[in-house]
Amino acid sequence: MINRERLVSEFLELVKIDSVSGFERNIADILKVKLEKMGLQVYEDAAGKKINTQAGNLIARLPANGGSGAPLLLCAHMDTVEPGRGVKPVVVEGIIKSSGDTVLGADDKAGIAIIFEALRVIKESGVKHGGLEVVLTVFEEGGLLGAANIEKDRIASKIGFILDSDGPPGAIVTQAPTQDRISITVKGKSAHAGICPEKGINAIEVAARAIAGMKLGRIDGETTANIGIISGGKATNIVPDIVFIQGETRSLDGDRVKKQTGEIIGKAREAAAQYGAQVDIKVENLYREFYIDKNERVVKIAVEAAHSINLAPRLESTGGGSDANMFNEKGISTVVLGIAMQSVHTTEEFISIEDLVKSSSYMVEIVKAAQKY
Ligand SMILES: [Zn+2]
Asked: Which CATH number is 178-287 given?
């Protein structure tokens, strides 16, 4: 059923098109033409203008062809991380990888290729389906900005599948954390370090005291905290007046993130007070957590479809955010499917042809299974 050659050649074509986050114009135009050729109506939304990037999200629609199922959202993102320019894919014994100096970009062009192959097979074999909406987002990496700014009114689906997890086909992510980003500017007072250090307030010392008091790393089974950036100071003979610290907290439980973020802020304020320094603190909630029960439609469809092709369905939680956080927050019940991309965000990234084929069959089965719901 799946046309292996067509699938692989399209995937290779897509990874060769540069599309690092913010530079999606070229690939968006190519994907638009491909979707239209498959008979979908394509709309590019205004997200690109809002986030000041080259392209918006593509929202494409294939009307029902007599099927009765609920409309389904099928989603992947078109951007990749760096180093992602000039990808030269190599195929060795059924494995596709990069030539070694860039990522492959299977994250998430494998997702796009799988959706496209499934759409073609569905058309060719006359599979009855309800309305299908293919959403290809921009700027997923580093902020979920495309999905955050998507024109939600253009989407009719209440349930969605995102092809963007590194688990094997059959892995269904039904739970993901919320994340706070915490930015702290410590303001001390500069002075000559040799002549009058007592007139200064050493912002590096304040920051060090603050961080030393913070509980970081794995806080509990569902919660993590990290300070990832620290910068400040100009010269050894100046008592430094400014230090910038940035970190994050994540949890599957929204209340625990609030508590953890609160503790980090508390330690910063405490240290500042102790030294007579000031702190400016900014907290941004980047995305909210979600949890989808196994009895919800979207999970039932994914599980039933997996069984129909002898894939072992496995419900999972993840430590990372994805477009699914945004869609769930906007009221579209969305799971993330494993497509077996490996070592993503490294130059060792690879994917097997076998898994591309398997995921494409799975996608077709999901559309079929949705007919009962
Ligand atoms: Zn991804």
From this structure: 3.30.70.360
Q: What's the angle, vertex CA 311, arms to CA 307 and CA 314, rounded to 5?
A: 90
Angle at 324 between CA 79 and CA 252, to 5 degrees: 120
Q: Which of 220, 271, 224 is nearest to 248 (CA)?
A: 224
CATH code: domain 4-176+289-372 is 3.40.630.10
pLDDT computed for residue 98 by the predictor: 96
Active site residues: 79, 140
Q: Which two tokens mark 359? A: 């995921």
Q: pLDDT, tens digit, for every residue of 303-362?
A: 999 999 999 999 999 999 999 999 999 999 999 999 999 999 999 999 999 999 999 999
Q: Please state the domain extents for the chain.
A: 4-176+289-372, 178-287
Distance 52 CA to ligand 1 centre (A): 21
pTM over the 0.90 mark: yes
Quote the ligand 1 centre to 282 CA distance (angstroms).
27
